[in-house]
Amino acid sequence: MSKAIPAARALTGRGLSKRFGDLVVLDDVDFSVVAGDAVGIVGPNGAGKTTLLNLLAGSLRPNAGTITLDDQDITTTSPATRCRRGIGRAMQIPRPFAGLTVLENVLVGASYGAGLRGQHAYRHCAEVLDTCGLIELANRRADSLGLLHRKRLELARALATGPRILLLDEIGGGLTDAEAVDLVVTVRKLRERGIGVVWIEHIVHVLVQAVDRLVCMDAGRIIADGDPQAVLSDAVVVDAYLGKAQ
Ligand SMILES: Nc1ncnc2c1ncn2[C@@H]1O[C@H](COP(=O)(O)OP(=O)(O)OP(=O)(O)O)[C@@H](O)[C@H]1O
Q: Which residue numbers delimit the ABC transporter domain (predicted)?
């Protein structure tokens, strides 16, 4: 399903800063993900996690810094172009086309994101729906789905665009632990196919089952980046994040 991915290709932000008025939300952040990596991002509310994802996806422009994909500068490239170049994104609050079926929603991603048509598009969507546990709901209207299936559909819509790097914003939010673990299984499969995953999630004990690297942000900066267990036992992380019951 995924495109062939040279292992060294990466999405990289260097020196990223973002302000809203006087509020500095990101302050000189360096971040990189390589295809096939799974990186978790945690941190307290307001740390700048979603803003970092917005910059990487292109829905916000940084005030300073550069973003490259495969060493090409995409800092000012639109989200639609980034999507066609292999950066997929699943939003915190799923907003499917409510009146369309599950299959039709995924076909939109396959058509506009991956550029697939006809039988190729249908075959690709069937694989995506199977991967995301939605194949039996293919003909259900999106607005009839419960939260778990809406979250899965959000992931499927992003996956249908044929990403090499997938940005996931709290796709486990609001789910039970068992439901969120279900998403872990799916994310692991994607990683095995060589897709790079960046996953923001507050359910840390679930997130660490899916990622091999954990980044902790606080107040617009990355305060730890590395092996998940080492990051979680870092005194600075415990003080800034884990000490404040999430
Ligand atoms: N468009 C905006 N205009 C003004 N302030 C904003 C805007 N977007 C985000 N912010 C502020 O930037 C800060 C960082 O927000 P961001 O959503 O990136 O944090 P986060 O780490 O993802 O938080 P959470 O875990 O609560 O989702 C917050 O103080 C937020 O209120």
A: 11-244
The vertex-56 CA angle with 220 and 143, nearest 5°, equals: 105
Query: Residue 45: CB within 6 Å of ligand 1?
Result: yes
By most ligand atoms within 8 Å of CB, the mutation choice from 16, 18, 20, 63 for ligand 1 is 20
Query: Of 26, 2, 4, which Cα lies nearest the Cα of 15?
Result: 26
**Which band of pLDDT confidence, cut at 50, 70 and 90, is reported for residue 6?**
very low
Give me ligand 1 centre to Cα 20, in Å: 9
pTM of the predicted structure, to 2 decimals: 0.91
- ipTM surpassing 0.90: yes
- Architecture of the domain spanning 10-92+164-242: 3-Layer(aba) Sandwich (3.40)
